[in-house]
Amino acid sequence: MSEQKHTVKGVDHVAYPTFDPAATVKFYRDVLGFPVVHSICAAGWGPEKHPDFIHFFFDIGNDDRLAFFYYFGLEPFDGGPQGDSYSRFTEDVPIFFIRSRHLAIHVDSEDDLMEYRRRLDGSEWPVEMQIQHETIESIYTHDPNDYMIEITRALRPVTPQEDLDANITIDALVDVVSGPEPSMAALLTRKAELIVERAEAWQQKQDEKEMVSNR
Questions:
Q1: Rounded Cα–Cα distance for residues 108 and 125 (Å)
Q2: How far is Cα 176 from Cα 186, in angstroms, rounded to an integer?
Q3: CA separation (Å) from 147 to 5, 62, 99?
Q4: Rounded to the nearest 10 degrees, how much is the dihedral formed by the CA atoms of 174, 164, 109, 97?
Q5: Which tens digit of pLDDT belongs to each residue from 87-130?
Q6: For the chain, first and last CA: distance in Å?
Q7: Nearby residues of 40 by Cβ (< 8 Å), 6 or more positions away
Q8: What CA–CA distances, in Å, run from 189 to 156, 162, 166, 198, 200?
Q9: CA 86 to each of CA 24, 83, 129, 166, 179: distance values in angstroms, whole numbers, following the listed order
Q10: Is residue 2 pLDDT above 70, yes or no?
Q11: What sign results for the dihedral spanned by CA atoms 104, 110, 111, 114?
């Protein structure tokens, strides 16, 4: 577990390439309602033969931004039949692997989530899935560039115990994948060992916090 000071303040921006800036603007600005907040017109930037490009940004809340690059004169690259504007994959690549790379955007309430579902379902990019899993509920679609986009809300707050569980799980994962035969069974076994090792120390810290708060 890292003990280093945590000073970052969220996502400044996430950036993707696009070969269809008009549809990208329609999806994010006109359908979802994310304002355009910045653009950079770059002529003659970069090394020799670097194409001119525009870098444009959408406000996705909380001072975070989603950005796209459009390179003038650059044509889509060849590849397999699956994937998106950035990566094309052959048919043998599992779809779950391709979809694991996606962007999730947070909203505060069920009403907000359903409002974005309404906007998407009335557009060229309707919702493909709506799923409740563990502590969140999400809707999913693909944007005009075939990037998977998730809009999600919390079903309940995440507890300190769940944060602790996450840290133990990841420590167990790091241990297991460093070994010869990583598996879910090995992960769960190692996690149980770490729980036993750390339970007493964690409870002692909780008791100390409670004593301080009761003073």
A1: 22
A2: 7
A3: 33, 22, 8
A4: 10
A5: 999 999 999 999 999 999 999 999 999 999 999 999 999 999 99
A6: 30
A7: 54, 55, 56
A8: 28, 18, 15, 15, 19
A9: 14, 8, 23, 31, 33
A10: no
A11: positive
CA distance 185 to 198: 20
Q: Is 53 strand, coil or helix?
A: strand
**pLDDT tens digit sequence for 10-41:** 899 999 999 999 999 999 999 999 999 999 99
- Give the contacts of 111 (CB within 8 A, at least 6 positions apart): none
Pairing of β 102-107 and β 148-154: parallel
DSSP string, 101-151: SEEEEEESSHHHHHHHHHHHHTSSS---EEEEETTEEEEEEE-TT--EEEE
How far is it, in rounded angstroms, from Cα 213 to Cα 204? 14
Bridge pairing between strands 88-89 and 65-71: unpaired
With a pLDDT cut of 70, the percent of the chain lying above it is 99
Judge whether 38 and 165 are in contact, CB under 8 Å. Answer: no
The encoded tokens of residue 210 equal 């409670």
- Looking at the chain, the number of H-run helices and the number of E-run strands are 5, 10
